[in-house]
Write a structure and sequence with these properties.
The protein has a single domain, classed as Pyruvate-ferredoxin oxidoreductase, PFOR, domain III (Pyruvate-ferredoxin Oxidoreductase, domain 3), CATH 3.40.920. Helix content is 39%, strand content 24%. It has 8 helices and 6 strands, in the order E-H-E-E-E-H-E-H-H-E-H-H-H-H. It has a 6-stranded mixed sheet, with helices on both faces. The radius of gyration is 16 Å and the shape is globular.
Length: 193
């Protein structure tokens, strides 16, 4: 198998790190050589967070270069736009449509750009756009947005659903397990309208 690359991008506090642990656990359980690299930019203050995940038979480096990602999982629209150049031409973008205003927008020195999703679609990417918040709330907590998004991304991979469920059981504390399994299922079964 050739090496495949997945990027998880978002802002601090969104649960991208749990998402990367779930992804790594699922891939390792299937016997892949997995390399993960996490980059935090003021993640505690809502700054950008990106996780590079590479897997295959023999992976030399976790770094994903421009035009190399098979999948980008974006927890926020602007982060999807920021990292879009890293997606392969035939790659898949799974993006949460919820907007999180960056500090310049919050402070009034900038305006959140309009039409981000439309621009990404015009670039020709295969996009699954999902508002994960209502599905997370349906699962039991708005904090499950990250697992809803992992579910939506998982549906774009070759790994069986049982592998993902086992990774959730191995990673999530027991008191949150049922909620996270439900969140994953809702994301996995999401059909874009």
């Amino acid at each position: 198998m050739s090496v495949k690359s997945i990027m998880i991008v978002g802002v601090g506090g969104q649960g991208t790190l749990l998402a990367s642990r779930l992804l790594g656990s699922a891939l390792l359980s299937q016997g892949y050589d997995v390399k993960v690299s996490e980059v935090h930019g003021m993640s505690q203050r809502g700054g950008a967070v990106v996780t590079y995940v590479k897997y295959g038979e023999n992976v030399a480096s976790p770094v994903v270069r421009q035009g190399e990602a098979d999948i980008i999982l974006a927890f926020e629209l602007l982060e999807a736009a920021r990292w879009f150049d890293f997606l392969k031409p035939e790659g898949k973008l799974v993006v949460n449509t919820r907007q999180i205003d960056p500090m310049p927008v919050v402070s009034g020195s900038a305006v959140y750009p309009e039409g981000v999703l439309k621009t990404l679609r015009a670039a020709g990417a295969a996009i699954t756009a999902i508002d994960a918040l209502p599905l997370a709330e349906q699962a039991g907590s708005e904090k499950a947005v990250n697992v809803v998004l992992i579910g939506a991304m998982a549906s774009q991979t070759d790994l069986p659903v049982e592998v993902w469920q086992a990774a959730i059981k191995a990673t999530v504390p027991p008191k949150f397990l049922e909620m996270n399994l439900k969140a994953f299922e809702l994301g996995f079964n999401y059909k874009q309208s």
